[in-house]
Write a structure and sequence with these properties.
It comes from Streptomyces thinghirensis. By secondary structure, the chain is α/β, with parallel strands linked by helices. The protein has twelve helices and twelve strands. The structure holds 4'-deoxy-4'-aminopyridoxal-5'-phosphate.
Length: 368
Amino acid sequence: MTFGIDDLPVRDELRGKSPYGAPQLDVPVRLNTNENPYPLPEALVERITERVREAARDLNRYPDRDAVELRTRLAEYLTETSGYAVDEHNVWAANGSNEVIQQLLQAFGGPGRTAIGFEPSYSMHGLIARGTGTGWISGPRHDDFTIDVPAAERAVAEHRPDVVFITTPNNPTGNAVPAETVLALYEAAQAAKPSMVVVDEAYIEFSHGASLLSLLEGRPYLVVSRTMSKAFGAAGLRLGYLAAHPAVVDAVQLVRLPYHLSAVTQATALAALEHTGTLLKYVEQLKTERDRLVAELRAIGYEVTESDANFVQFGRFEDSHEVWRKILDRGVLVRDNGVPGWLRVTAGTPEENDAFLDAVRELKKEQE
Ligand code: PMP
C-alpha cells in the first residue's frame, strides 16, 4: 500500500474531499472557465514587458506591501466606470478575487462563525469557507435561479451568518441580482447582527445593468469584489480587488500575508490599467456573442437562463454529464457545474461559438 493523503493528519473537514478545478483538457474549443478568448493586444504586451523590466531591477527588495499605486489606479478605474467616487483607502487588491474572498473570510469568518450563499452559485465561496474553518450555509433560490428573497431573509434571520455572499451576475446561472434584493438582504443581515455582505461582481462588466458600487454609500458592512480575470482578459495575471469602507481594508490587512502581491504582479497590473480602453474593447463584442448564444440556443430548442455574464446556462437534460461528454466528443469543452439538468458555456470568439452551436444542433437532431 502506498502512502497517501489519508495517512496524513489532515484536518477532518478536508478528508475525502477533492481540490476545486475545471478539467484543463487540450481540445480545439475551450469554453469552460469563463475566460476572455482574446489575447492581450501587442501594445499592452510591450508595456507589460517594460514595466516588468523596471520592476526586475528592484527584485532584491520586497514589493510595496500596501500596493498603494495599484490601489489608486484601481480606484480611478472604479470611479470612472461606475460614477461613484472611491479612492485607494476604499480599495484592496490580492492575487485574484479568490484571495480577496479568502482574506474576507479569514477576517470575518473562521471557527465558530458561518457564511451563507444562495445556491447554485460560485462554489468557491463555500470551499474557501471550509478552508478557513467557517461554517457554510446553503441558502435558497427559486426554480428560475433568482434569489427567493423572503426565504433568503428568513435564512439570514435564522442562522445569523457572519458573512453573506451575493454573486451578481451569478455564476453558473448568469442572471444578475437586482439592487433591491441586495438591499433587502443587507437589511436582514444587519437586523440579525452586524454581518458582512459581500457582493461578488466578477462578471459585472458584461452586465446589461450597472455595478452596485454606489450602494457602498452609508453601508460600512458592504463589500464589492471584482477581478481582472474576466472582462480585462487577464486571468493569468491573478489580480482581484475589493471596494468597501476603509475600515474593511484595515480589517483584511490583519490577515493578508506580508508582501502578498509580488512586484511583478503589481507592475503587470499597472501596465494593464494604463490600457483599460483596449482591454475592455472586446467586452461589447462578447456581450453581443453572449446574446447570440442565448437566442440561438433557444431557437434550437434549449432552455436558457437569462444571462448578464460572459457565459450562458442551458438545458434541460436528463443526464447533463452525458451531454457534456457528447459535446466534448465534438471538440468543444463546456462546463458541467453539477447543477442537475444544466450545462454552462462561456462566450468565445464568433468562430468558437459557431463550433459550439454546430455541436449542440447536431446533438439535438440526434435526439429527435
Ligand atoms: N467570483 C466568481 C463569481 C467567479 O466566477 C470567479 C472565477 N471563476 C472568481 C470570483 C474568481 O476569480 P479570480 O480569482 O480569477 O479573480
